[in-house]
Amino acid sequence: MRDVTFPPPLARGDRILVVSLSSNTASRFGQRLRRGVRELERSGFEVRLGAHVSDSRRPGLETVATRLADLHHGFADPGVTAIVSAIGGWASHQLLDSVDLELVRANPKWFIGYSDTSSFHLLLSERAGLASVYGPAVLPQFGEVGGVRQYALDSLLQATRREAYEASWADTRVDERLRWETEDGVRRAEVRAPAPVVIREGVGRGEVLALNLETLMSHAGTRYWPRLSGRILLVEISDSALEWQALRLVHQLSQQEEFGHLRGLALGRIPRGIGIDAGTVLKRLREVTGPLAIPVVADLPFGHVDPIMSIALRRTAELTAEAGGRVSLRFDALGDPLADSPADRPADRPGDGARDVPVARPEAAAQPERFAHPMSGTPRPPAHGHGPAPAEPAEARCPAHGDVDGLLTTDPYRAYSMLWAAGEAATWHEPTRSWYVTDPVHVREMLTDRRFVARGASPLEPALVGAPGAEAVEELEAFLGCWPVFSDAPVQRTASQALRRSFSRARAEQLRPAFRTAFTGIVERADRHRPVATFARPVSEAMLSLLLGLTADEVDLLRSMTAATIGYLSNDGQDVAMARAALDRIGELEEWLAERGSRGGQDWLLTELDAAGVELSRRELAAVYMQVVTGALDPTSHALIGALRFVRHSPQARALAATGDFAALVELCLGHDTGFHFAPRRSGCPIAFHGREIGAGERVVGVLAWAASVEAGNDGGTAPGTPRGSGTSLAFGHGRHFCLGAGIAQVAMEEALRAALALPAAVGFDVDAVERLPALGASLYRDPAAEVSPEA
Predict the structure, then answer these.
(1) Quick count: other Cβ atoms within 10 Å of Cβ 238?
(2) With the C-alpha atoms ordered 623, 608, 486, 459, is the resulting torsion angle positive or negative?
């Protein structure tokens, strides 16, 4: 990788400046700008608007100074982490000659946008040596009614992180096009998206450039034209282009001197309904790349499409296009020696020595990776005085495990194995500011010691007392205390018993025929070249829909409410923005409950609660429904992922599947459960725990069930790797940590496996794809191949 600076990863709490570099559209659609700002704030960011973002003047030479002023202010302000474009346009090229590159180099931060802002991406990449993100803009994506698509937000955050990752392709797309002047009050519908298209097979590796094709070709022959040699080029066509223009631009690109030295080429998804026949453009792309022995693909979800994928320019990646139609784009970790090896550097082209600007990496770029928010997949902000400061006596902290630090965020299984093997009761990890307890005996002791508080309602942290937004945190904390799993109140205990009856094995048996029909339909529609999680999630959602009698939209509502609350719950400290976001979604759930009640609607769960004589407020009912999602839907999805992986690697499991004995197959798979289960707790007071002095208010994470480990009752355990057999588990439906999914998982998994394995192509599910799940608050799966012997 040539000299290029990558700013620190984006994290909740970071300040974003919104600028408008190439159009006056923000001045005409203020409602979308306001919605976009609110959505960014709900996503956890602090937002500022450039002084001239709503300038109504048409961009021209007379507005260069004001547009530049906003841009320079963003780079000069040390409190700004990222600069996000309000929208694209047509005039960003007017700024290029006047940008203060020394200011930019001295203050590296992310610039984010797409379309016409490609001109500025080129300036940063080729002249300033600064990485930027080709990704969402405020009006089109964040200003959408109903908020930004989750895929787009997750992709943006992932593109800025430093660890290696493989890009995921959006499962849905939005074809509907709206006139903002008259049709801006509805949320556009999503439909199933096709897989990327392989035009030419191959594998290519190099730095990535992602740009709008029209804007890129406008710089042909200028000093802003980028280096192509040795790079992977991703281009997309705007929704204002005409078909003849698109064809001519593809041809013009192929005539560039370095076109034949590309390592890979990808075309973004062409928007529907704009008068361009995508097949015609792909045919032309196939023609012009005929002489090239590089991977060429199309229909990637970036550019003028929703949901939009984000791509960091100048990051080294490997593009693979296989004969079967599978496409992958894997990005290197930043700082990986392989990414900087001479073999991966593009060859210099004659006369281009002045083009590459050597830029020293600032201190900020070398800071430790910020840990990820559990469940939500978004980066966690560093502690800014939230909560009590942990005590730091030397004797209270475990000896340093240098290799563990990075693994806890990239490969938790290896990290926990190392901690377990060390035999220590608890290990402190500074980057995540958490204690980790790995021995089953110590975990059970922690769970039964009420000084370790299950994270229900917590008092307001001292730093928030009297602060703006503190009331939102207090309200959400009170809501958390309503969860049956966190409450000892009689009404909550009764509700918990009703939940167990509602999710019993007997109830699941009644629904077995419906499960079979629904799961078979999901398998038939599934893209079996995608990671197995894309099959497991709709299966678990269909299971919950059938159990409760809910529509798919209602199940999706439950999931979104739960994700927002779990994101707050898993955060390190009480976050005002996250609390407000969760309360917004809880309010939507309460509105749904009220509307349902006014219609006399009654699902299975409400019937069970009524039969038990449980009277709950709407807020308490919302907590019960969220408990259902975390205790039934998610565990079943995780268990199914582990089971399908185990079937792939176990001859014994495949033999059982061949005989149709799915009950025995599920028992075998659960005996080799490859999932982690965690119980995050807080120390309610200073605690002496087996020689460790745990300070008040510190996070303590218990590993409830080792993957494939034997647990004698709730007390004993052996090293990871031994099947746990028929013994009880700390996590899966036993002990104080009760998973509601335990009663229905076997029936649901039997029918899901029956459906998935009925079709020979089902083995095409990518069961070995890395599931980049967070290290806390969820299950994380490891490859069982190494632990399953051929005789198993």
Answers:
(1) 22
(2) positive
SS3 label, residue 586:
helix
Question: Would you say residue 485 has pLDDT above 50?
Answer: yes
pLDDT tens, residue by residue, 137-190:
999 999 998 889 999 999 999 999 999 999 999 989 988 778 787 778 778 888
CA distance linking residue 788 with residue 723, whole number of Å: 10
Quote the CA–CA distance of 405 and 427 in Å, as a whole number. Answer: 11
Which two tokens mark 698?
Answer: 């510190």
Residue pair 61/53 in contact by the 8 Å Cβ criterion: no
Written as one letter, the residue type at 91 is A
Outline where DSSP puts E strands in 88-190: 110-113, 133-134, 165-166, 172-173
Helix (H) or strand (E) holding 207: strand 202-212
Instruction: Identify which has the larger pLDDT, 382 or 523.
Output: 523
Cα-Cα-Cα-Cα torsion 41, 43, 44, 47, nearest 10 degrees, comes to -30
Tell me if 672 sits within 8 A of 649, measured CB to CB: no
Does residue 391 sit in helix, strand or coil?
coil
Long-range contacts of range 348-354, CB-CB < 8 Å, 24 or more positions apart?
A: 349/227, 349/229, 349/258, 352/227
Which pTM does this prediction carry? 0.48
The 3-state DSSP class for residue 687 equals strand
9 vs 110: CA distance, rounded Å? 9
Grouping H, G, I as helix, E, B as strand and the rest as coil, residue 427 is: strand
Cβ–Cβ < 8 Å for 344, 116? no
Q: How far is it, in rounded angstroms, from Cα 119 to Cα 90?
A: 10
Task: Output helix, strand, coil percentages for the chain, rounded to the nearest 5.
Answer: 45, 15, 45
Contact call for residues 375 and 777 (beta carbons, < 8 A):
yes
For residue 380, give the amino acid letter. Answer: R
Phi and psi, residue 699, nearest 5°? -80, 135
335 Cβ contact partners less than 8 Å away, ≥ 6 residues apart: 162
Q: What tens digit of pLDDT does each residue of 752-779 get?
A: 888 888 755 444 455 444 333 333 333 3
- For residues 200 and 378, give the distance between their C-alpha atoms in angstroms, rounded to a whole number: 35
Task: Pull the structure tokens for residue 524.
Answer: 């038939």
| Of 327, 328, 306, nearest in space to 191 by CA | 306
